[in-house]
Design brief:
Elements lengths: L7 H10 L15 H19 L3 H6 L3 E3 L2 E3 L4 H10 L18 H14 L1 H20 L2 H13 L3 E5 L15 E5 L2 E12 L9 E9 L9 E7 L1 E3 L5 E4 L2 E6 L10 E6 L5 E6 L5 H37 L1 E4 L8 E3 L4 H33 L4 H36 L10 H8 L9 H13 L5 H18 L4 H27 L4 H6 L1 H29 L4 H33 L3 H5 L6
Parallel strand pairs: 3-6, 4-6
Antiparallel strand pairs: 1-2, 4-5, 5-11, 5-12, 6-7, 7-12, 8-9, 10-11, 13-14
Length: about 600
């Protein structure tokens, strides 16, 4: 497998010019884009030198259960310890609990490199971050003092336990039950698909578990969110007795072999000791504290795999000599990167990667604004934009990962179908991303029925107006590429507006048709939003070039202009046809009987 090169230059560019790093709350003289670059360069070395070489190891040597616990692939435990010892888990968390207090979007940028170098290994800290968020927002003072310092440092790890065999998307169907027992609860039940539910990285694992509370009504109103530690914690903070929770088996998966996906059993003996986080009956709401940012994080996993698959395919395309270039009469065989279809695929892979990176970090900037700005209109606006962006980032970037990793196999030809080249691993690892943390169909329903219809299309209208104004601005710069980008962006925006109006008009009277149109609508929204990101990067590049960029930086900026042109010429026009798909009425789907499907 080829080496992984951390994309620090592009991450810094997106942080500065798309996320607006220097203008985020919490930045200033000491925390600025220069510091961010230094942090990312150091993170990139750990990702490239330590984590990346273990990626194929984890794929070929999956985690196993031994002696009542999970043994992770060779080298994973040491790589995790270097990550924790370097303070990488604590970058953006509360300084009161050992965090460094940096903007969240900086930890996102670093996380892309952990994910791109070794996605399986990166899932452990991702789940810990989710647990930290839930406890920090909803836990008691004592719970925060007990668990957060060691979770933030990485000394302990966290998990998120939601799914059961009968309760996937429908969490109201959860049967795991928590029964009151004095100052705590006793939990009984089983959870499936629990990422890093057990491992050998840390001495304790803090499970965040969604369970039904005995005596409360059925449905969502009866759920609670609980802390269930693998080992109980004594009053002095030391590790106590083993709790009644165990990983009883591991799933055999298509990809992400290095990440143990556990079936967890609670209460096989006396009941697992569990501590309520927040209030009874508010478990689902509190769980979404973990879920929403995790969805942005999963979208970023898609970006990370896009980057890795593109790097791998690009090296192969430069090295593999095969055939003669069409129209070349010299008879000379050339590297396949000279063939137009390979160039088309590589360009598609690269622009989807960079557009997805910009979109996810743009959302990350909104996370920081929504969390850190004082109460007021600017904070509300950031939260509204983040709400709109979350399903776009999760679905569009993960769909892109499947497409990009598939194109990577195609570029390798028959060798891509052979495991030894490593190209297939990226596809196998990517395929789960559109499924977990809410399938992409659920993201589409969330976009249409919660985000767009909830406010009558107000926020998508504001976003569209912002994009339109930017298109007008770059169109006036008298640059051929920017004019083309602006023209095609304006055309795509008009079709998106037509689609939005159709949804608003038909949601009540023709709900099934609107539901059938949700996925195409998300693709159109996200495609326009990602096109906007490429246009913003091109606009910035043009400005910097006009002001004297030189050398390698000028080459980097010229490439941004060309990539935006490729997106505008090749990808934006494809979005317009989705309006007709959406507004056709979906008669075929609606009229087919179940047995005809």
């Amino acid at each position: 497998m080829t080496e992984y090169k951390a994309p620090v230059e592009d991450l810094v560019f997106a942080l500065e010019h798309i996320a607006g790093f220097n203008d985020l709350p919490g930045t200033g003289e000491d925390v600025n884009i220069e510091l961010a670059q230094a942090v990312l360069e150091e993170a990139g070395r750990l990702a490239s030198d330590v984590w990346a070489p273990l990626n194929p190891v984890g794929d070929k040597t999956p985690a196993v259960i031994e002696n009542g616990g999970v043994k992770t692939p060779p080298g994973f435990d040491e790589a995790y310890r270097k990550f924790a010892e370097g303070g990488w888990n604590s970058v953006s968390f509360d300084e009161n609990y050992g965090g460094q207090g940096m903007p969240w979007v900086l930890s996102m940028a670093a996380a892309e490199m952990w994910q791109g170098s070794n996605l399986s290994l990166s899932l452990c800290p991702l789940l810990s971050q989710a647990a930290i968020e839930a406890i920090h927002k909803h836990g008691t003072g004592a719970q925060k003092d007990t668990y957060l310092p060691r979770l933030v440092s990485g000394e302990w790890a966290g998990t998120m336990n939601l799914t059961e065999p009968q309760a996937g998307t429908d969490l109201a169907a959860i049967r795991t039950i928590a029964k009151k027992d004095g100052e705590h609860y006793r939990m009984y039940g089983q959870k499936i698909f629990i990422t890093f539910g057990d491992h050998d990285f840390t001495e304790n694992i803090i499970h965040l578990v969604l369970a039904r509370i005995d005596g409360l009504p059925e449905g969502n109103a009866g759920l609670g969110l609980f802390i269930v530690p693998k080992f109980l914690v004594n009053e002095d903070g030391s590790i106590g007795a083993r709790n009644d929770v165990e990983a009883v088996s591991l799933e055999h998966k298509m990809g992400l072999h290095g990440s143990p996906t556990c079936v967890m059993s609670y209460g096989e003996k006396d009941g697992a000791v569990a501590y309520l986080v927040g209030k009874e009956g508010e478990g689902l709401r509190n769980m979404f504290t973990m879920m929403n940012n995790a969805r942005i994080g999963v979208g970023q996993q898609g970006v990370a795999l896009c980057e890795r698959a593109w790097q791998h395919a690009r090296i192969y395309a430069r090295d593999r000599v095969q055939g003669q270039k069409i129209g070349d009469s010299s008879g000379e065989n050339v590297p396949i990167i000279k063939h137009m279809d390979v160039r088309r695929m590589l360009a598609t892979m690269r622009i989807l990667t960079e557009a997805g990176r910009a979109l996810s970090l743009y959302a990350g900037g909104m996370i920081d604004r929504a969390a850190r700005l004082p109460d007021g209109e600017e904070k509300k606006a950031a939260q509204a934009r983040l709400d709109l962006l979350t399903p776009l980032v999760k679905a569009w970037c993960t769909d892109a990962a499947v497409e990009v990793s598939s194109l990577g196999i195609q570029i390798h030809g028959g060798m891509g179908y052979i495991e030894e080249t490593g190209a297939a691993q990226f596809y196998r690892d990517a395929r789960i991303l559109p499924i977990y943390e809410g399938t992409n169909g659920i993201q589409a329903n969330d976009l249409v029925f919660r985000k767009v219809l909830r406010d009558g299309g107000a926020e998508i209208g504001r976003f569209a107006a912002e994009i339109g104004a930017f298109a007008e601005e770059i169109s006036a710069r008298n640059d051929e590429t920017l004019s083309l980008v602006a023209r095609n962006m304006t055309a795509a925006l008009a079709k998106l507006s037509e689609s939005t109006q159709w949804i608003l008009k038909n949601a009540a009277a023709n709900t099934d048709a609107v539901a059938a149109a949700a996925v195409p609508y998300l693709k159109q929204c996200a495609g326009v939003a990602s096109g906007y990101m490429t246009a913003k990067m091109a606009g910035t590049a043009h400005h910097l070039l006009q002001n004297g960029a030189e050398g390698g930086n000028a080459e980097f900026l010229q490439a941004k202009l060309l990539k935006a042109r490729f997106y505008a010429e090749s990808l934006l026009p494809q979005l317009s046809g989705l309006t007709e798909v959406m507004t056709s009425g979906h008669t075929g789907i609606l009229k087919m009987a179940d047995e005809q499907l």
